[in-house]
Amino acid sequence: MGNLLLLAAIGAFFYWIFKSYAKYTTYSKEAFKNFSVSKESLQKSELGLFIALVAKVAKADGRVDALEAELVGIMFDDISAVFPEPHKTKDILKEIFNEHKNRSHDLREIALTLGNTIKRDKNKQHQFMGFLIQLAFIDGEVSKSEEEVLASIAEALRFDPNAYHAIFDKFEKMVHNIKPKANINDAYKILGVNESDDMNTIKKAYRKLIREYHPDIIKSQGKDDAYMQEATAKTQEINQAYEMIKAHRK
Fold first, then answer.
1. Could you read off the pLDDT of 36-50 as tens digits, one per residue?
2. Any idea where the J domain is (predicted)?
3. Is residue 1's pLDDT more than 60?
């Protein structure tokens, strides 16, 4: 009887550890229901540190282009939705992003802090690094400065170099295989609009599609690299169509 009670106690203890660990390895409202939202707490959180690195990658080539800005804005919505007080959280995330996009001296420090936080979670390392690579490729090419920033982050995160190059090469191959639309009619079809629609209508359709197909760091949990590649390819296709229509109407 004593042994049974001991086994039951041990089982309950390990179940409690599993539940506690699982709570912090999944980004959900349940996981963050007791999170006290403040700039200090968000800056120290995994997702806050990630946003700081997103800012540095986005600005690595000297500017945050329109599509990057659109995707980063949607990312703020995705991330803030799992925290209490989403509107307050979103405002703080924007503040963190804007502070870090113009600072490069603390890149390694931020990456090391995030790396230490997630060092036992290979899935999170892969998820974060994959999204940063995806962001660099979203405009169709990766500049030398972006590549240097990505490499510095990967090293600080102690991310497997082979895994890094595998992800990078997959995105590079995918981008090269995306063909620009041959004609303006295809561009209108992709956005689901008519040639007679005004630019405000077309812009709304574009933004709706970008929001629908963008790579979502929250929903990507547990999914493989194919999810990010498909989302990136679709996002680029939508953006190419929109840019073609804009150029055609000048």
1. 999 999 999 999 999
2. 186-250
3. no
